[in-house]
Write a structure and sequence with these properties.
This protein is α/β, with parallel strands linked by helices. The chain has 19 helices and 16 strands. The strands form 4 sheets. Strands 7-6-5-4-3-14 form a 6-stranded mixed β-sheet. Strand 6 and strand 7 form a beta hairpin. It is elongated, with a radius of gyration of 29 Å.
Length: 600
């Protein structure tokens, strides 16, 4: 209710709110805490919370904080601290294994968001003009994609927690993935967040007055700054202490000059951006090529469950054998075991190879196992997908190429080897494979195996599809993270890979979550939870055809790179054309406002 009838009550409310907020943000520690917390919020959109809808506004608090930064350096710091919070939140399940090293890694990766924070202030700071608002809808998503691209490098931990992956169960988003991969979804999510932030800015400006100007607070912000002349406390002004408060340049209806565009104009690009995302999603839903049906494959997943303690490798193998025997007579095309399901090299242990071959004859299907052992023909320990048929190993073998940093090898071990003393980092580095493999199983079915977090890499599943794989397989083990968000989040990645490639994907684990997804990314049957010890059979629909993403690859990333190159060129040209201010002569120097003459 407006008691004054002229918007004064609403303006006063915003000013009181701005003063309270300013007092908190004036503290470096409070502001830093807000930045870390705001950066962590998007993690709620991923499994297990799986609040997928929250992703479309989860970045807004972070963006509003960075835009209110008093200096570009502080905005970059807000970006870094927010990135630290995001990295810790999406990798918090590593804390029991890596302890404080998790925070160290998160702090290093968080630096990637420092330029993004700077750009948020550059394009959203103050009251943006319509031109700046429109540019923000293009530049900020492009900068976000560059962050995701850089941290997707396997040596930096891989693409775990890409923002677009949070939409793994949203059918329209999965259609977008078939066009531009997870990158296109990430970009659209950031566009919507930027538009929402612009609407918040416009709403706040409208609440204070149509001629309001948002003024940032100097750093360090103080409630009562001291006078530069006398050193005594100066009068507190709204301009000085309220980074989130608008200072009216006049009363409603009075004359005056507008320093910025009105809030209504700022909202126009935001609405247009949301409509553009909606239109593009609708177009992808209507016209993007859909995978054509190519029959079905009957695939069984064997999940032994958690088996620890002495002789765990022998006990796990025995449990897998018992579960596999229950599949006899089910008319199967393939049986898939999880990661590290066999702890012996099948060349060194021909007796184990014969036992698995006997199982293959009994169930009438090839068995894809995963061997985690020291090789006899090559030095070192490998994780390998090995296909075993009725006569023994068929010769089809895939050695894992992209290893988990610290989990399967320690980067720069001579420098970072101390991580093994504070957590469960790998005591010995696993060895890498050198190429991806497409395997032929019974009845002409071609499968492309991946191991563990390789299912997070869009390029690997895309390459397997281009090489002729009809079915994608991921063998995984999450026994170290049973009670965390890691198992459901890992399983959800298979849905995104299926939608991108138009090929079904089977995610088979030792301890769950095991799940199967159709060529459009929808779930097939019921998953096996982390506590399950069972064998399940799935009728997997096969697909044919080529999706736009398989054909054109990571084109959203390339487009984002072009945007940022153009931005750098425009900014460089603007700086080059800026006139250089003349240095004041000696007569222009003053002390406390009084001119100083030469020689005095």
């Amino acid at each position: 209710m407006d008691l004054f009838g002229d918007g004064r009550w609403e303006r006063d409310r915003w000013e009181r709110h701005g003063r309270r907020t300013a007092r908190l943000l004036a503290s470096r520690w409070w502001r830093g805490g807000f930045a870390v917390t705001a950066g962590a919020l998007p993690a709620l959109a991923f499994p297990a919370p799986s609040l997928w809808w929250f992703a479309y506004a989860a970045l807004v608090p972070w963006m509003l904080l960075a835009r209110s930064a008093p200096t570009p350096r502080r905005a970059a710091l807000d970006g870094w601290l927010g990135g630290l919070g995001f990295m810790v939140a999406v990798h918090h399940w590593l804390l029991p294994s890596l302890h404080v090293f998790t925070v160290v890694i998160a702090a290093l990766l968080g630096l990637l968001w420092a330029p993004w924070g700077w750009l948020v202030r550059r394009f959203l700071g103050g009251t943006p003009t319509p031109g700046r608002a429109a540019a923000a809808l293009v530049v900020l998503p492009s900068a976000w994609l560059m962050v995701e691209l850089v941290r997707s490098w396997q040596g930096l931990g891989g693409p775990w927690g890409l923002l677009g992956s949070s939409q793994w169960q949203v059918a329209p988003a999965l259609r977008l993935a078939s066009v531009g991969g997870v990158w296109l979804i990430s970009a659209f999510v950031v566009v919507v967040n930027t538009a929402v932030a612009l609407l918040v800015i416009a709403s706040a400006a409208r609440a204070v007055g149509s001629r309001s100007v948002l003024r940032p607070v100097p750093w360090p912000a103080v409630v009562r700054p001291r006078s530069p002349v006398t050193g005594s406390p100066a009068a507190t002004s709204l301009r000085t202490i309220a980074p989130l408060t608008f200072r009216s340049s006049g009363t409603p209806g009075s004359g005056g000059t507008f320093r910025n565009a009105g809030p209504g104009l700022v909202a126009v690009p935001a609405v247009v951006g949301i409509l553009a995302v909606t239109a593009a999603t609708a177009a992808a839903w209507a016209w993007a090529p859909r995978p054509e049906s190519a029959g079905r494959a009957r695939v069984a997943v064997v999940q032994p469950g958690v088996i620890d303690g002495a002789r765990s490798a022998d006990r796990r193998l025995a449990r897998e054998e018992a579960l596999t025997r229950t599949l006899a007579g089910r008319d199967l095309d393939l049986v898939v075991w999880g990661e590290s399901s066999v702890g012996y090299d099948l060349v060194d242990r021909p007796d184990v190879a014969r036992r698995i071959a006997a199982l293959s004859r009994e169930v009438g299907a090839d068995i894809l196992v995963n061997v985690d052992a020291r090789r006899s023909d090559r030095p070192g320990i490998f994780k390998s997908s090995v296909l075993v048929g009725p006569e023994g190993p068929t010769g089809d073998r895939y050695d894992k190429m992209r290893l988990v940093p610290f989990g399967e090898y320690v980067p720069a071990r001579s420098l970072l080897g101390w991580a093994t003393s504070v957590g469960k980092a790998a005591g010995e580095d696993r060895r890498r494979g050198d190429r991806q493999v497409v395997m032929d199983v019974g009845q002409g079915l071609r499968v492309g195996p991946l191991v563990c977090f390789e299912s997070a890499f869009p390029d690997m599943s895309r390459r397997l599809t281009r090489d002729g794989a009809q079915l994608l397989l991921a063998q995984s083990a999450t026994s170290s993270f049973q009670s965390s968000w890691a198992p459901p989040q890992h399983a959800s990645l298979a849905a995104m890979r299926a939608a991108e490639t138009g090929r079904p994907m089977v995610h088979a684990t030792l301890t769950g979550v095991s799940a199967v997804y159709a060529p459009d990314g929808s779930r097939v049957g019921s998953p096996l939870g982390t506590s399950a010890s069972a064998a399940a059979v799935y009728d997997v629909p096969l697909g044919t055809g080529v999706t736009a993403y398989v054909r054109w690859g990571d084109w959203p990333v390339r487009a984002a790179l072009v945007v940022l190159v153009l931005l750098c060129a425009v900014e460089g040209l603007r700086i080059f054309r800026r006139p250089v201010p003349e240095r004041p002569g000696p007569l222009a120097r003053t002390v406390h406002g009084s001119p100083v003459r030469p020689g005095r």
